[in-house]
Amino acid sequence: MIRPLPAFARSAQRIILALTLASACLNVAARPLLTIGHSSEPSSMDPLFSRTGNNQAAAENIFERLVSTDENLQIQPGLAQSWEVISPTLWEIRLRPDVRFHDGSPLSADDVVFSLERASRVPNSPAPFSGAVRSIESLQVVDPLTLRVHTRKPTPDLMEQIGLVYILSRQAADGKTSQDFNSGLATIGTGPYKYQRWQPGDSLELRRNDDYWGRHGDFERVTIRYIANDAARIAALLSGSVDLIDSVAPTDVKEMKKYPNVSLYHSESARLIYLALDSARSHSPFVTDAQGRPMDRNPLQDPRVRRAISKMIMREPITTRLLNGAGVPAGQMVPKGLGGYSDALPPPAYDPAGARQLLQDAGYPEGFGLTIHSSNDRFASDSDLAQALAQMMARGGLRINGVVTQPYNVYASASSKQLYSAFIFSYGNTTSDAANGLTNVLATYNKAAGTGAFNRSRYSNPEVDALLAQAAVAFDPAKRNDLLRQANEAAFRDVGIVPLYFPVVFWAARNGVAIKPNKLERTSLVYIRETQ
Fold first, then answer.
1. What pLDDT digit, counting tens, does each position of 156-182 carry?
2. What is the pLDDT at residue 283?
3. Which residues contact 337 (CB under 8 A, 6 or more apart)?
4. How confident is the model at residue 31, as a pLDDT?
5. CA distance 427 to 419
6. How far apart are CA 259 and CA 313, in angstroms?
């Protein structure tokens, strides 16, 4: 019998105080000010500082990209009105006319060139945009609204790649640092809202861009409050101090449904939640022997050990009990329906006997010691997930030396410096196939080539790299899909990372405010409307 995990018993306690104190305060009149309670704050206002979701959630209200992504992860025209493949290594992009930055200056092809060049040059980025521009050989301004992109090799998904880059004003941002964006000096985009003020650790204030080229926002002013604690976010919504919250914990959904003046929204996500294991170094900082002593080798380098850890994990109970059904067990990079998905990679089965045999075969019959690291504010129940994995791995024969959870800004920075041995992370698949995720998470880290930008464990597999390189130049959709499927299979047969699940994400809003659920898990203002 599987014992309940600690998080289950704590679920009601986490929100009972919020429900008690705030239940009488739900009727909130419509107003020109929208206040959002967001679970995770950005580390910078520089939109090209980090590709992590918390930074993008702030940036996309102020800045825009050449393309946007619809609810099915298909690209649509954004600042780029159209594009044409002139030859396999030459693309021509035409911009929308009459788009202006927040300072009144017109958008031009030169601004796009500046932004694409800057994407790989931001100092100290924990999650750089270099992978998005890795294929570019050179950029050419044809006229104020037209540019040409010369690529190093055929790049069929070029628009998806460079479409990840936010477009800046050269006039406002040239020579400016990330700190200049944080202060607002350089925070000038073309988006539906303008930067007003950022108070790190507290809030971001925005004002509607009434000269926006697209559909205007419904709210004159917006305040995004950063509230990491789940119960505190719920209390803020129920008391009326915020109008909408993100990252509603699945264990809180049932209680929230009792309130008629609160609406819940949900979406299946393309984000993979996974456990990364330090497979690159001969010595890993948080690995010990079974007695807690330092080891002369790193067992995580052995694929049998990584496979054993995967077999220790009960994915079904995680999704059905820890997440109250708000998750789909995962065995690969992308969910079914995206390119590169493989029917040969079902979620790994729970197999404790098989795990112990693999440990014995690898030379660790008594197991070894491990510390698990996790964020505590990045996605719903992330710290509870860390505790659950620790219990499962302890039952599987490992010594768990500790579970350490941290605010995401601290955690993401430390993990990018390879400070951990076993750590929970996620990657949001933002394109229609597995290429983006595989290239960023499982391709060999190569800063110059722009691969492995999110490969924090420094996993490396030449077979995966070769298949991804072939897929990257394949214009034929069927051939590309087959190569991505093979790369997906090669990476996960080798347990480059340990896949856990694809989450179902929840938002809650007072009546009168609605959000369009989306696979990207975005709480951006383009998805939020006043309904009465």
1. 999 999 999 999 999 999 999 999 999
2. 95
3. none
4. 53
5. 19
6. 36
Q: How many CB atoms lie within 10 A of CB 365?
A: 12
Tell me the residue type at 449. A
User: What is the distance between the alpha carbons of residues 509 and 1, in angstroms, rounded to a whole number?
Assistant: 38
3-state DSSP: the chain helix, strand, coil percent, rounded to 5? 30, 25, 45
Spell out the domains of the chain, with CATH numbers in brackets: 33-243+512-530 (3.40.190.10), 271-503 (3.10.105.10)
Contacts 24+ apart (CB under 8 A), 156-159: 156/472, 156/473, 156/474, 156/475, 156/480, 157/431, 157/433, 157/435, 157/472, 158/91, 159/66, 159/67, 159/75, 159/80, 159/83, 159/91
| Nearest CA-CA partner of 398 in 424, 362, 368, 363 | 368
What whole-number distance in Å separates Cα of residue 419 and Cα of residue 477?
A: 39
% residues pLDDT > 70 (the chain): 94
pLDDT score at 252: 93
H or E segment and range at residue 498: strand 498-510
Tokens representing 477 are: 């959709």
In the three-class reduction of DSSP (H, G, I as helix; E, B as strand; rest coil), residue 80 is classed as strand
Cα separation, 505 vs 267, in Å, equals 6
Name the 3-class secondary structure at 194.
strand
Q: What is the pLDDT of residues 107-157, one digit of tens each?
A: 999 999 999 999 999 999 888 899 899 999 999 999 999 999 999 999 999
* Stretch 312-327: mean pLDDT: 96
Three-class secondary structure of residue 18 per DSSP: helix
Q: The pTM is what?
A: 0.83
**DSSP class of 13:** H
CB atoms near residue 75 (< 10 Å) = 20
Nearest to 493 by CA among 469, 522, 461: 461
For the chain, give me the number of helices (H) and strands (E)?
16, 21
